[in-house]
Design brief:
Blueprint (H helix, E strand, L loop, with lengths): L1 H39 L2 E8 L2 E8 L4 H26 L3 H34 L14 H33 L11
Antiparallel strand pairs: 1-2
Helix pairs in contact: 1-2, 1-4, 2-3, 3-4
Length: 185
């Protein structure tokens, strides 16, 4: 009787882990989509006076390669996560678990790289870099810089979700909730 109770507990535990993984994949998908959209739609035009002449300046995410990288990385992460969500719901084979484990880690690192590059670019935009003569620009483009910060927060949260997914998929691959023996949701 003890084995039956233990097997039932293990089955319930595996089901909870599977539902948690599916929910975290959905959250990671939404965070990646939001991070990409906020940055991709981000633009601001402002006018400054230089003497008696008014000059219009533009800020677009496409002006910095780091921000373009962030949009593409979030887009790739969102597409992968949506596809992996479908695979998680319908697939149980061990090969799929191994691929999810590898790709979850790879996407976490991709998002970390994109967020780190964009954080550096936004830091220079906010503070400037006096050693090379770059002035700060966020005083002129406050709305643009604020939306960059929002996109970065969403991207870092997505990266953390992918880190959690990598841990969950490793437990499913190497732990007691094997992909080929887990109960379906």
């Amino acid at each position: 009787m003890g084995n039956a109770v233990e097997a039932h507990r293990s089955s319930v535990s595996c089901r909870i882990a599977r539902v948690s993984e599916i929910m975290l994949r959905a959250v990671a998908t939404l965070l990646s989509i939001a991070g990409a959209l906020v940055m991709a739609k981000n633009k601001q035009d402002t006018s400054i006076l230089i003497g008696a002449q008014e000059l219009t300046m533009h800020a677009r995410h496409t002006y910095l390669e780091a921000f373009v990288f962030l949009v593409y990385a979030n887009g790739i992460a969102a597409i992968y996560c949506f596809m992996s969500l479908l695979i998680c719901c319908f697939g149980k084979r061990r090969v799929i678990s191994a691929l999810l484990f590898l790709f979850d880690q790879a996407l976490a690192y991709l998002l970390l790289a994109a967020a780190a590059c964009s954080t550096e670019a936004s830091y220079i935009a906010k503070r400037g870099e006096s050693h090379v003569g770059w002035n700060e620009v966020c005083s002129s483009f406050k709305h643009f810089c604020d939306l960059v910060a929002v996109s970065l927060v969403l991207t870092f949260l997505s990266m953390l979700a992918f880190g959690g997914l990598a841990i969950m998929s490793s437990k499913r691959l190497f732990g007691h909730c094997r992909a080929d023996s887990s109960a379906s949701v």
